[in-house]
Design a protein that fits this description.
By secondary structure, this protein is of the alpha/beta class. It contains six helices and three strands, in the order ααβαααβαβ. The chain has a domain of about 90 residues.
Length: about 170
């Protein structure tokens, strides 16, 4: 079976976003955590949505939008994302607020954004795509699971064009 990559996009610690090729030179960094070079998200997501959106979702939505814009297909047959930790930060924020507020006056938004399928579902909602979408969330091999799922969908002729992503 053959499958082809028709477009790519990523947000990383290197200057890769909205570039047509990977950088010729890698910028060396000596830090514990590598900060990503993030775009102005207002160019991709409405400011109203941005206010309450976690950073990981902003990155996924902007990158997927650029990928779709570069692709000949504007409405993929499936959206599949792999993530090692998912939106764990949002779940932590929600649980801490439960403890701090004694279960009163809680914002449910961090909980809603922490669900395992939040990333692929948010991308689908942004694209107004009602096709198959799922987020794989199993630590180190989640992206491989996303690729395997995409390849199986294509091989079984359940999809021709699949948006596959990996975030963390």
């Amino acid at each position: 079976m053959q499958a082809y990559i028709t477009s790519i996009s990523n947000i990383s610690p290197q200057p890769t976003f909205e570039q047509n090729t990977f950088p010729d030179e890698v910028i060396g960094m000596e830090t514990k955590f590598l900060p990503c070079i993030e775009p102005d998200y207002k160019n991709f997501i409405s400011p109203i949505q941005l206010r309450r959106m976690p950073r990981i979702l902003k990155m996924a939505l902007a990158s997927s939008q650029v990928c779709i814009n570069r692709s000949p297909v504007t409405n993929p047959d499936a959206i599949i994302v792999g993530t090692g930790l998912g939106c764990l930060e949002n779940l932590e924020k929600f649980l801490l607020s439960v403890l701090e507020e004694n279960e009163h006056v809680l914002s449910v938004l961090p909980f809603i954004n922490s669900t395992h399928n939040a990333v692929a579902a948010q991308i689908a909602m942004l694209l107004k795509n009602y096709n198959y979408n799922i987020t794989y969330c199993h630590k180190g091999f989640s992206f491989e699971s996303a690729l395997t799922d995409a390849m199986m969908l294509i091989e079984e002729k359940n999809a021709n064009h699949v948006l596959v992503g990996g975030i963390d």
